[in-house]
């Protein structure tokens, strides 16, 4: 059995920061952690170790349209007009295109400090809206992209049946998403067969707009104990429509009717009132926050201060992959609160004064919960490790929590030196080992799609 020994000057362990740390890896797992030990012959030496983060919400193919929707189309441009641009972009996309675009997104995730991704995968059908002969053809594209880049994968096939609340017929632009219950069951079975060792599968009822209560009840058993992710309350228009349909707000309806618990991740949950904040925090579910995308789409600001005060659980996601940066997502959570409240250091607390530590620790635990895995730099955990460079100016002379504060608020992806996912080095000197090949395939796909 081959062992790897990594030695770090500092490491954020489950019990806090430690100096002179040796982490022993074998078969993709952490076998042991020693602290206060001198580096020895055979140790591979690095600066600062932190656990890899989980990206709870990604639409990999949307990386290809990043920057293409930043032109004013009408005076009231909003999420709904952006969605029409997205529908047009995916109209001719092949499974190979999906794999190529997603692989670049996953490369960038690893380079920024994400070591596992939750792929909220809804592009199931061919360009005519028919199922491929293999119902998991495009799910295979996602698994291929994960295998090419080495990122851990939690695949979340999406059930999408309707255009709006109450079972409204789907729109033409949604034809590549649409499933019925029997077809979705076949899709889940075929998708499971494509997973690698260590991959996880859950389900993703797209939203209460796209799924009726009866359909939601029918598909939940297909999760088989795995994660359940759903978009909820991203837009005020969605909240108003849900009230008109049911008399309840989206998160309120889910809490009252869907059995929301620790398996669930409610993506965005942006527009929630005080009662929903309390209910969501008490449920044990994770709020999947994607603040960079939420800012890009003009969604609004999640009430993070009130939610975290109640020990609510959070994870971060890159959603549309407009800009992939793990530290940037954490930073934007805090900055959105500052802009809204006109105060500083809002998400620090009496128990944890470091805003960076509170955000990182919350996203680390909540992200792993949301993706159905365990995490941390301790024996028995997956060897998902991010090495930050102490030579980066933003980390000069930093120790302990100052490291996370400086990485998140001053350094970003440029601080990331080396990344191991499942014990395999995928990023070295800040660059993914397969980036060159990923860029070539990505560029070829985009040339064809944009032409």
Automatic annotation (TrEMBL):
Domain called Formimidoylglutamate deiminase N-terminal: residue spans: 10-47
A GO term, aspect molecular function: metal ion binding
Entry cofactors: Zn(2+)
Record InterPro entries: Amidohydro-rel, HutF, HutF-like_N, Metal-dep_hydrolase_composite, Metal_Hydrolase, Metallo-dep_hydrolases
GO cellular component, one term: cytosol
Sorted UniProt keywords: Hydrolase, Metal-binding, Zinc
Residue ranges of every copy of the Amidohydrolase-related domain listed in the record: 48-423
Pfam families registered for this protein in UniProt: Amidohydro_1, HutF_N
NCBIfam families linked: hutF, PRK09229.1-2, PRK09229.1-4, PRK09229.1-5
Name this polypeptide is given: Formiminoglutamate deiminase
Species this chain originates from: Sphingosinicella soli
